[in-house]
Automatic annotation (TrEMBL):
Record-linked NCBIfam families: PRK05326.1-2, PRK05326.1-3
Species whose genome carries this gene: freshwater metagenome
Protein's UniProt name: Unannotated protein
Transmembrane segments: 6-28, 35-53, 59-79, 91-114, 120-143, 188-206, 213-235, 241-260, 272-291, 297-319, 331-353, 365-385
Composition-biased stretches (Polar residues): 510-520
Membrane topology label: Multi-pass membrane protein
Location of the region described as Disordered in the Swiss-Prot/TrEMBL record: 485-520
Keyword Cell membrane in annotation: yes
One of the record's GO cellular component terms: plasma membrane
Limits of the RCK C-terminal domain: 401-482
Biological classification of the source: unclassified sequences, metagenomes, ecological metagenomes
Amino acid sequence: MSLEGLAPALLIGSAIVLVSILGVRLAGRLGVPGLLLYLVLGLGLGFAFPDIRVSDAELATVLGYSALALILAHGGLTTRASQLRPVLGPAIVLASLGVLVSIAVVALPLVLLAGLDVQLAVLLGAVLAATDAAAVFTVMRGLQVSPRLRSLLEAEAGFNDAPVVVLVSIVASGQFGTAPWWQVAGLIAAEIAGGVVVGIAAGFMAKWLLPRLALPAVGLYPIAALALLIGAYALADVLHVSGFMAVYLAGVLIGSARRLPHRRSIMGFADGLAWVAEIGLFVMLGLFADVSRLPQALGVAAIAGVTLVVLARPLSALLSLAPFRWAWQEIAFAGSAGLRGAVPIVFAAIPLGLGLTGSELVFDATLIIVLVLLLVQTPLLPLLARRLGLDTPTGVTELELESAPLDGMSALVLGVDVPQGSGLVGTFVSELGLPRGSVVSLIVRGGQAQAVDEHSRIRAGDQLLIVSTEEGRDATEERLRAVGRDGRLASWLRPRPPQPKANKRPTPSHPTRNPGSLNE
């Protein structure tokens, strides 16, 4: 691209992004996912303006991998290790055994009914076996289902990209049918294990490094965190192990760190990049598709899509979750919530880049299936959750603690959001029992700063600003979480840390409520 073409390209790109952002509101009113509108937007632009279509399959795959790395990084950052741990076993089985079951069940009728070549049938089954991280993270976090079920499906989406991309690469290459099955299984296991090692190592290194950087600007912390995450993906890829697994696990460990500085800035930055990646990825895949070829793939897409939804996915969920004694309602929902999106389309572009005969049919059928599932499957999930009795009212959210270091003072500021239903609600500041060196300096209520005194009482929706020494940080967070769980009972259930010695008058341990107080 020349310098003269830069401005028009930026103008077109900014217009596409703005239209996509506005499309999110439109999609919500129409009851369809915004990801579908992005894909349709790309298809429409490619059909109306053939000159801007993406024709290089290898470039499409590279851009797709880059976007998936950013999406998985955001998904990992917003997944707590405490939520992932209880569903780790079922998620791994669903992302491994479930993938193999899905491939076999989808490929069989394609060979018997559609007369498809075995290699192409297995390839189509493989690209459809992976659930889409962007779709799962976007849709599941908007549903009111149990945290365990949501964490299972999100973890599956984070894990199953790793084995599927290896399977697709092997099937699309000349090794299909020649390499023994044990060699293929060993290669997949080695790549996944290597990705796990790299991701855990990068995550622990980031947890140690980020709080000690003492950077001169808040905006540098999100950049540092993202660099560490993308570095984990790149290092894993250089070592020929799973970069997707590495970046997701590294994100989980970083996001779960108790001492993550400027957490909100990091999460906000990652969320914005994930949205840009999702928009760019779906629009790019729409520009890459050839609309004129799609009618030829309708028959194959119908057989593969119906088999996937009716047989393959439910059977995968049943065989993977039944041994863990999950309830049949949860198994039924998991068997219906295998969301497909950009990931299968990106993986379907791999054989196109390799020049495999018949790969156009695999790509076109995958695109048709994804379009139909985004249009039909996703809007039905809330109704299905209600019918199965899995919808749950919004419960008490975990106490969020935001920290910002005060360089040169060996201190930091803790920001605490008080959710509805927290034990902090109704508690007087003097009843918090914070350790020595920590003090509530400000309460922000309804956007207005409130002075803090012995009569200050915490309400739902308040934001507390607490100044603490580095030494007292852990004890302060532990105390806040204890009061958040147990309320005033925390004073008896858990002993208070030593109180700071101050030269101010003592405050009563149980102050009387003053109806005329400013903060009452």
